[in-house]
Design goal:
mainly beta, 8-stranded antiparallel β-barrel, about 10% helix
Length: about 220
């Protein structure tokens, strides 16, 4: 049994075969080998409002899918340079069922080498899971859980496919957000303990920002 399963006493189920990605149900025509080209004005718009450095363009390498149940799913697109990934929240099986779009950039990846280190980083004595979390001088508000104090991280099972292989990643995640001062654009902080099928565990911190469908083209 992996560290995360021992830590939570939980094993996330494998999604049913019907929920796997097919070219017809991925949004915006995205998929492995497609290029995400961002509007140059977006970088100027976000300057001073978000910590995320928006790239000019990125090529998708791998595609991840998370089935959250009740027809809600996450489509995740991981870029070739490994610095960025795009998450699209979907309300149904159709490629048009888009609810939210967030561009994330990896802030840090910290390998975890023991159960004790895992407990120290995300256990009861850590700040992850509290209603508020400070990052780079900004205060973010917890988006998951209604407890007044610390809440448990959310377990997520993700299937990732690239041109070379397919694999499962187990996550224990907590999402935070803050207002940027821009209309309909929030900044997000996603903290996630991730375990791959080989048992390698790391704590990743990603900073994201809301995108509109007019912010990018897929070519």
């Amino acid at each position: 049994m992996g560290w995360l399963k021992r830590f939570m006493g939980f094993e996330a189920p494998k999604p049913a075969a019907s929920s796997q990605q097919t070219p017809g149900n991925l949004p915006f025509g995205l998929g492995s080998g497609r290029m995400l080209k961002l509007d140059p004005s977006l970088k100027l718009l976000l300057d001073g409002h978000s910590e995320l450095e928006v790239p000019a363009q990125e090529v998708v390498w791998a595609v991840g899918e998370v089935d959250l149940g009740q027809s809600v799913r996450l489509a995740r697109f991981y870029m070739e340079d490994e610095d960025y990934w795009l998450q699209v929240v979907m309300n149904g099986a159709s490629a048009d069922d888009v609810r939210d779009i967030i561009l994330f950039g990896y802030y840090s990846v910290l390998p975890i080498n023991s159960d004790a280190e895992l407990k120290r980083l995300v256990g009861p004595e850590s700040n992850i899971g509290l209603p508020y979390y400070e990052h780079e001088g900004y205060e973010f508000v917890r988006q998951w859980g209604s407890e007044e104090g610390q809440t448990e991280l959310t377990p997520i099972s993700e299937w990732v496919s690239s041109p070379e292989t397919s694999y499962r990643i187990q996550h224990l995640s907590m999402l935070y957000a803050r207002e940027t001062g821009l209309t309909e654009r929030r900044e997000f902080l996603l903290l996630s303990v991730e375990e791959d099928e080989d048992g390698n565990v790391s704590l990743t911190t990603s900073v994201g920002v809301t995108l509109q469908s007019t912010d990018f083209n897929v070519i």
